[in-house]
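re: that chain from earlier
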Amino acid sequence: MLFQRMLRAAKLDVSLYEEVEADQTALGQAMLVVVLHGVAAGIGSYDEAGATGLVFGTIGQLIGWFVWALVTYLVGAKLLPEAQTHADLGQLLRTIGFSAAPGLLLALGVIPFVGGIIAFIAQIWMLITFVIAVRQALDYNSTVRAVAVCVLGWLLMVAITAALMLIFGGFLTK
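^ sequence. v structure.
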């Protein structure tokens, strides 16, 4: 069932995102998709990051998934809701988790010459699945609004990351 759901998510099947949005038992599956994405990314960049990068990258994916879902919830459900928007953090965690399904292709990053191209395609593909996941979880009629939420959320994530680097960066270099 998980593999079928991942395949449907990667195929941009809108009904899958509606299904996992409503399925409160799918949180574990969504988390597993994020972990598999993190492992695949670690495999794809193993030459540069090694085993440590694989482990910390996977942990970073899990943390990033939660923070992305939280920021997206705040921006999409609180700051830019449509009239019919009704969402909670769990719905966003589930849909966004499944939107990482194309990230399994990142494992192919180890292939000489074409690995980088495959990784680029996987990243664009995940961006598209993320927009669909956000649109469905937030019950938007407008894809443009979902894109706006994703862009605004990304800008907030960049600002948060920069602030954390400024605050904690000095401690990490000492």
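The first helix runs from residue 2 to 10.
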